């Protein structure tokens, strides 16, 4: 699954540390998300959506099977 977490974070002028604190996850989780190595739980996806004030589909791009 592709995502725009890094782009959204940079547009919000946030560091990875700041984002991880707001989401209550480790910085390593943010790094893994940004590199596409980790698919978030639905709860984390909703937290990101709320934080960046956009639909989940604007952050995560489902590529299918």
Account of the 3D structure:
By secondary structure, the protein is mainly alpha-helical. It has a single domain (2-61), classed as lambda repressor-like DNA-binding domains (434 Repressor (Amino-terminal Domain)), CATH 1.10.260. The protein has four helices and two strands; from the N terminus they run βααααβ. Strands 1-2 form a two-stranded antiparallel ribbon. The longest helix is centred in the C-terminal third of the chain and has 11 residues, at 42-52. The protein is globular.
The CATH class: Mainly Alpha
Q: What's the overall average pLDDT, rounded?
A: 95
Structural class by helix and strand composition: mainly alpha
Report the CATH superfamily.
lambda repressor-like DNA-binding domains
Number of helices: 4
The biggest beta sheet reads: 2 strands, antiparallel
The CATH architecture can be given as Orthogonal Bundle
What tags apply to this protein structure?
65 residues, mainly alpha, 434 Repressor (Amino-terminal Domain), 4 helices
Brief sketch in words of this structure:
With 65 residues, the chain is mainly alpha-helical.
Chain-wise SSE layout:
Layout: E1 2-3, H1 5-11, H2 16-23, H3 27-34, H4 42-52, E2 60-61
Helix pairs in contact: 2-3
């Amino acid at each position: 699954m592709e995502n725009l977490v890094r782009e959204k974070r940079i547009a919000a002028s946030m560091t990875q540390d700041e984002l991880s604190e707001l989401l209550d996850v480790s910085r390593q989780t943010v790094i893994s998300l940004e590199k596409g190595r980790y698919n978030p739980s639905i709860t984390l996806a909703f937290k990101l959506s709320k934080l960046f004030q956009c639909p989940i589909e604007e952050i995560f791009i489902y590529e299918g099977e």
